[in-house]
Known about the structure:
binds pyridoxal-5'-phosphate
Amino acid sequence: MNFKSYTSGNYNTIPQISKLPDEIKHNIEIVSLILPFKVNNYVIDELIDWDNYENDPIFNLTFPQKEMLLPQHFNEMAAAKEQSNDKKYLSEVSNKIRLELNPNPAGQKEHNIPLIDNVKLYGVQHKYRETALFFPSAGQTCHSYCTYCFRWAQFVGIQQLKFAMKETELMVKYLEQHQEVTDLLFTGGDPMTMSYKVFKKYVDPFISDQNKTNIQTIRIGTKVLSYWPYKFLTDDDAADFLKLFETITSKGINLAFMAHFTHPAELGTEALKHSIQKLRNTGVQIRTQSPVVKHINDKPEIWADMWRKQENLNCIPYYMFIARNTGAQHYFAVPLFKAWEIFRKAYQNVSGVCRTVRGPSMSCTPGKVQILGVSEINQEKVFVLRFIQGRNPDWVARPFFAKYDENAIWMDTLKPAFEENFFFAEEEVKYFRENYYDSEMESFE
Ligand SMILES: *Cc1c(COP(=O)(O)O)cnc(C)c1O
Ligand code: SF4
C-alpha cells in the first residue's frame, strides 16, 4: 500500500469529499487555514464510515470542524478569505489568531530544557528524574493530524515555536552525564514518520558497544499503528525497521511503543492486527494512551470497549489524559468531574488486566496530576488528586485536595481545599523565580 496524504491544498481531490455539502467543505477550508490538517488514504479508505461521516469518530478526529474555532476567529478568517486570496495576507491573519490559542501549553517550549556546556538543548525536555523526552527534528510531523492535537503549533510553521534539534550528539553527552535517566522517550510529532535510515542514526548510540548512558528503556510515542499500520507491512523499509527493533530488544533494552489510540474504530483493521503481530515478534512492548475528548470518545462504553480490544491485541492500557489547554480546547474539553466519571465507569467494566491504565491525568507544569475522584470531607465537596509524576519526585503518590468545581476543565482554575495553598505551591513558585522572570509564575498551567 502506498502512502498518500492530503492537506488543505489538495483535500478537494479526495473522492469521498466531493459528496460532502458545500458548507462542510467551506468549514474545512477556513479552519485548516489556522489549525493543521492532514489525512491519508488509509484513514480515508479503511477507518472512516463515509455514510455516517457527521457522527464518525475518525472523521471528527481528523477533519477540521467549524466549532473548533471560536465564532469571532472563524468569522475573521472567513472574511479575510472572502476578501483576498493573497497568501501573505491570509497567513498574517492566521498567525495573529494562532497566537491567541495558547500555542505552547505547560511551558513546552521554554521549561525543562536542559543545558549542556552552557548550550540549551532545544530538542530535549528533562522534567522527571528518570525520563527524558527527545524531539528528533526529523519526526516533527504525523501521518495524519488529530483535530485536538496539543502540539499543533509545531505543524503550522510558526518558526519560533519549533523545538526540534538536529544532532543526537549533544543529547547523548547529556545522558552520559545524567545516569539517573533510564528512560528515553522519542516524541514529536510522530517519530515513526522517520525513515529507517534517519531513525537508525538516532538510536545507534544506545546499541553501540561504546554506550555509556544508563538508558534501559527506549519509548516511542506514536500514532503510527492507528494512522499508518502499513509502515511495518508494505513500506520499503518495513523489514529494516523490524530487524532494528529486534536488535534493540536483543541488547536487553526495553523498547516500548506508547501507542496513541483515540477510539475502538482504530482497532479493527487487518492491517493493524498484522502490524501489531510483526512488532510483537520483535520483542516490542505496546502500551496505549489517549486524551478523553468531547465529540470523539467522551463515553465510558467507548473506553471500556477500547481497553478490552487493546488487551485482546496484546496492547497494555497506560494513560487516559485530559485534553490540554491549547488550540481547540473549548470544543474538545471534558470537565474534570465528567472525565473522572468516564474513567471510573469504564474501569469498573473491565477486568484486572485492563486496569493497568491510569487517569484521568493532566500534564501540568508541576507534574502529571491524576483525578482520583470526587469526595466529601467535613461537609466540603472536593476533588481528590495526586501526582503520578512530579517535578519533585517526593510529591508523587501523595493525595491532595482541591475545591470541587463542576466547570473546571484544567488544573489552573482549581483552588486548594482546606489550606491556603497546594502543598507543592511554594516550591513551584521558588522554581519559577529562579528560572524564569515572566508572568507565568503567577499560575501553573
Ligand atoms: C508523561 C511524561 C513523561 C513520561 O512519564 P511516565 O510517567 O514515566 O510515563 C515524561 N516527560 C514528560 C514531560 C511527560 O509529560
Ligand atoms: S498523533 Fe499526536 S502529535 Fe500527531 S497530530 Fe495526533 S496528537 Fe498531535
